[in-house]
Design brief:
homodimer; 97 residues; alpha+beta; 6 helices; 54% helix; DNA-binding
Chain lengths: 97, 97
DNA sequence: ACAATTAGTCAGAAAAACATGACTATCAAA
DNA sequence: TTTGATAGTCATGTTTTTCTGACTAATTGT
């Protein structure tokens, strides 16, 4: 009962705003992503920024962090259910561009 | 032939990112918007930021600036054709939120 | 044993975005 | 004629975002 000129789209837009988030999100659509791998794939990016982006995407619950206790012990980030809901919008954006 | 990891959605996302752009865009969907009117409608906003947002939305060709030479001589900003293409995506975003 | 890879953190600097208050200039209404 | 509305600009300052380089710490490959 407090916001009157609420722009519902705004929140989602903000979640995907930031210099590296769209690219991270797009890569995550095609399967689990990993920290160092992202650093290599996204040219021009840097540790700090990717780390922060991943943390925020996780907080916003678009990505889920998973520690893989298997063979070469590592961490991967997967699109959450909420994240998957954004895929169609993302695709639509891609088709428009 | 130069970008390999291009994220097509990125550009559009960037166009709608910024503190006031989503709200301005949403208001523009419902008809022409005007500078002072936006300042009144969008609480917390300020001249400078709204002016910059309008200028950028215009540069990005999502809005078109029109000088109304009629009766009380003023300026209005309308959604361009390109801007209208974004409406469905925007709505989808709203429905998800 | 030594080097590389993984996945980060931390402090500090630089750059970009946003806000404030003062100011301009035209037009219309009281 | 003075006030209020229109639509801004400009200089400055604050805040937020992003980048850089050094560092940690566990694991894996040579």
């Amino acid at each position: 009962m407090e916001s009157e000129n609420d722009c519902k789209a705004e929140g989602l837009l903000k979640m995907l705003s930031g210099k590296w988030k769209p690219q991270i999100f797009r890569l995550a659509v095609n399967g689990p992503v990993r920290f160092n791998s992202l650093l290599r794939q996204i040219k021009g990016s840097n540790k700090q920024s990717v780390a922060v982006a991943l943390k925020e995407l996780e907080e916003q619950q678009l990505l889920e962090k998973k520690v893989i206790k298997q063979k070469p012990l590592h961490i991967e980030y997967n699109l959450s259910e909420k994240g998957k809901l954004l895929i169609p919008v993302f695709r639509q954006l891609e088709n428009l561009a």
